[in-house]
Design goal:
- The complex is a heterodimer of chains A (121) and B (170).
- Chain A has one domain.
- Chain A is an all-alpha fold.
- Chain A starts with a helix and ends in a 22-residue tail after the last helix.
- The relative contact order of chain B is 0.14.
- A three-stranded antiparallel sheet of chain B has the order 1-3-2.
- Chain B has two domains: 54 residues, no CATH class; 101 residues, no CATH class.
- Chain B is mostly helical and 170 residues long.
- Classes of the chains: A mainly alpha (121), B mainly alpha (170).
- Chains A and B meet through helix 1, helix 2 and helix 3 of A and helix 1, helix 3, helix 4 and strand 2 of B.
């Protein structure tokens, strides 16, 4: 019985560490994207990686590592509030940029080359 | 009792139920003081704020409170699509290959709350941000756009989420 409990505890620890590593990867990528991307809108997408996915993964890790069901339920309630508040913040920033006339960055599309001797005569 | 008064009572009861449920989840205790405190404050808050949570014109029950099982399915769909699009944004960050585009499309959802949930879900998934929501019209900034066609863009951005929300609300 003790062996079974130890195995479950170890599995929980491994799962917690794995999800924390995933959260760290998304957080670092979010920061890199925020520096690398060309305009405010694309940077908001990058910051969503660290602001949404990384935080959500950290919450999941906390649930796995929670000492009892009561603590886990509190984290679930916090996750519900996070689900509501986080996109609202992003939406407010993006909407303000959109309504103040900030044009989104566009990748320049190459025009197809004309073949020699083609075109209108 | 006239219909308007009955609808007001239903709204107070629904707000009370949600607040009390949240209180029990958050406190995780059935001690008498906790239960009495929860009942008392949920009652006071429900009486004050029912009109903010559920507006009078939202006359259909399922336009406010979602069906339980489809709502749980929607949450799982949202989490799955959040991770799927996070990985595609992660690839875009690593390669620097982005194709941002602003796309316009309509939503088939009728309830106000369901439309707001859809816009929030679109913003919650990395790679798409809802810029504007006007009635059923949505304007979305899409990081890795694959099409300019309005209907196809709508289907790719909101397809599975909208279907899941439609099952939960109206």
């Amino acid at each position: 019985m003790t062996g079974w409990h130890e195995a479950v505890a170890m599995a929980r620890e491994i799962a917690t560490v794995a999800v924390c590593i995933l959260a760290s990867i998304f957080a670092i990528a979010g920061v890199i994207g925020t520096i690398r991307f060309p305009d405010a809108y694309t940077r908001l997408h990058a910051s969503a990686l660290s602001g949404t996915t990384a935080v959500f993964s950290a919450f999941i890790a906390s649930i796995i590592a929670a000492a009892n069901a009561g603590v886990a339920m509190r984290i679930v309630v916090i996750m519900v509030f996070f689900l509501v508040s986080n996109p609202t913040t992003t939406h407010i920033i993006a909407r303000y940029a959109w309504q103040s006339g900030l044009d989104p960055w566009k990748r320049l599309e190459r025009k197809p080359r004309r073949k020699h001797g083609g075109g209108r005569r | 009792m006239d219909t308007r008064r009955r609808w007001r009572l239903v709204r107070v009861a629904q707000t009370f139920g949600v607040l009390l449920g949240l209180w029990f989840l958050f406190s995780w205790s059935l001690e008498p003081t906790s239960v009495v405190g929860g009942l008392l404050f949920a009652g006071i808050l429900a009486t004050i704020s029912y009109d903010v949570f559920i507006e009078e014109h939202e006359a259909a029950r399922h336009s406010v409170l979602p069906r339980v099982v489809p709502a749980a399915t929607f949450l799982l769909t949202l989490i799955a699509s959040m991770y799927a699009s996070s990985f595609s944004v992660l690839v875009a960050v690593c390669t620097g290959d982005v194709q941002p585009r602003v796309v316009h499309f309509r939503s088939k959802l009728r309830a106000d709350l369901a439309r707001v949930v859809l816009a929030e879900s679109i913003t919650f998934t990395p790679g798409t941000i809802a810029l504007e929501l006007d009635e059923d019209q949505l304007i979305v900034h899409w990081l890795t756009a694959t099409t300019r066609h309005s209907a196809r863009a709508g289907d790719e951005v909101k397809g599975s989420l909208e279907r899941a929300i439609k099952r939960a609300w109206l």
